[in-house]
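Minutes, project huddle
Topic: does the predicted pose make sense with iron/sulfur cluster bound?
PN asked that the exact inputs be recorded in the minutes so nobody has to dig through chat later. Recorded below.
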Amino acid sequence: MPTILPLRHQPPLPLDRLIRRDPPGAEAIEMDVLIVGAGPAGLACAIELARLGKRERDGGGDMPELNIGVLEKAGSLGEHSLSGSVVNPRAFRELFPELQPSDFPFRQPVPGEAVYFLTEGRAQRMPTPPTMHNSGYYTASICEMVRWLGERAEELGVNIFAGFPADALLVDGSKVRGVRTTASGLDRTGQPGSGYAEPTDLTARITVVAEGTRGALGQAWREWQQVGSPNPQLFALGVKEIWEVKRPLDTVIHTLGWPLPTDAFGGSFFYPLGPSQVALGLVVGLDYHDASLDVHELLQRLKLHPLFRPHLEGGQLVEWGAKTIPEGGYYALPARKSGDGVLFAGDTVGFVDVPSLKGIHYAMQSGMYAARAAYTALKLGDVSGAALSSYDRMIDESYIVADLRRTRNMRLAFKDGLYVGGVKAGLMTVTGGRFPGGRIAMPEDATTPRTTSAPPPFTPDGTLTFSKLDAVFKSGNATRDTIPSHLLVGRDVTAEVADFYSHVCPAGVYERVGDELRVNAPNCIDCKATDVLGPRWTPREGGSGPKYRSM
Ligand SMILES: Cc1cc2nc3c(=O)[nH]c(=O)nc-3n(C[C@H](O)[C@H](O)[C@H](O)COP(=O)(O)OP(=O)(O)OC[C@H]3O[C@@H](n4cnc5c(N)ncnc54)[C@H](O)[C@@H]3O)c2cc1C
Ligand code: SF4
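Predicted holo structure (tokens), as shared on screen:
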């Protein structure tokens, strides 16, 4: 059977575009701190920073009010946010010590939990692994959390610029000076069309990059500054649906096994979101071996399983979306998370604990540490890499790194398949991460060879199961058709590779037409899966992409 090596067909990162050495324009907007990304990490950073200043001024200190800006590529806050999400409230409590959990933007406490091993027709209840306990946590919509955090930030005087993607880091020597935004109103050929607005430069004493999973700026900075990590970052793709249901769900459910092949790592989640809504998602590691594996399609099949079908039948699909998750854990953390004039927080660094599927509280906590490091540096008037390395120290001594260290080899153990991985993961849990000793080395996802096969056909019924086209409609994506493509396709894309991309992309962006690849770029919902395995994603016109409301 023919095999595909994804890396062979992937274009290099467009470093010249993402790292810009030309000086900021004369009209550049000056800020003290500029934060890229209004997710949990970026907004927690903005709130903490504004609060530190206010506390000092209220106490009679002479630190002037900081000019803090947050750039977000979504047209309005939360529209590009997607998570499970079961939230550990720890970081919310630290950021808002004056509030009660009932004040936080959560849907409901976790009522109970269950883990099942699935075969095609059956669900076998398993003991809940310690890493998957969620008691004391809450189910939530990350879109709602982000909107709420944005309101708190604005109350504190933070400037939020939604619909302004950062296109590049502006640098001077080794120093990051700010960002350049994308242009908008370009026509299909990349020329200014009607409604053209040119890029804006924003300079800052400190730039905090909190752009989330598989961030283009973070990748570029690490490549430019040659910042490595013991293992490369690994990714999973999560496809998620929100359903309005007649039968409430009273348990947080996770499943392993079917419909995934045994040599793929992943599982599903099924969470209650109040009396009439549920969230259902499937997460699959992008180091799978079958070129025809299609996460969107597997989620559609999953809904037909007797564990899920009775809950969903008679209900209605409300929203659909997808996003990647950095899964490499402890050994994929970059050696430096700070540099001259710059700090990196949240998923762009890889602060996700995969065995527990948690990243939100780590993102927020790292954002808060970034704020503290930035504030001290600004007070001292020294924003050099040496001064900002206090952030690395805070992170290294924090519970974030301690938690990731405890599960350091767990995801990596599954490279040998579900059964061997499951046994190894059990031993790792018992020994607090000490078994097997040392690091399990992992290659980049794009270096895993894929075997092509002919998958059994699947026809969505339009009621319980949906095509990619219908799914993209449910993501709210209404990107204009005339936008230039923001996806960089490599050379040498054969018909088999085109097929592979069409399966990787949950949004139907790639199609094989004859032996050629067709790219429907406006469909893109910024999940970044093909940035990991194929064509590169680059920032595009603000407000493009999905318009999630309650993911
Ligand atoms: C399917 C799935 C299920 C998950 N389940 C859970 C769970 O149950 N519990 C949990 O704790 N965690 C979960 N996670 C992980 C969690 O969602 C992330 O760890 C968390 O959202 C990271 O926050 P962040 O702020 O770093 O990144 P994000 O939430 O991704 O926010 C980054 C923001 O930056 C913006 N951005 C990106 N690039 C640019 C740019 N160039 N210019 C301007 N803006 C930009 C994005 O639009 C986005 O709004 C899940 C993740 C997925 C995908
Ligand atoms: S093209 Fe867009 S939607 Fe499709 S996989 Fe790549 S980033 Fe995701």
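Observations noted during the meeting:
- The chain is about 25% helix and 25% strand.
- Residues 487, 504-505, 507, 509, 524-531, 537 surround iron/sulfur cluster (ligand 2) (CB under 6 Å).
No decisions taken; revisit at the next huddle.
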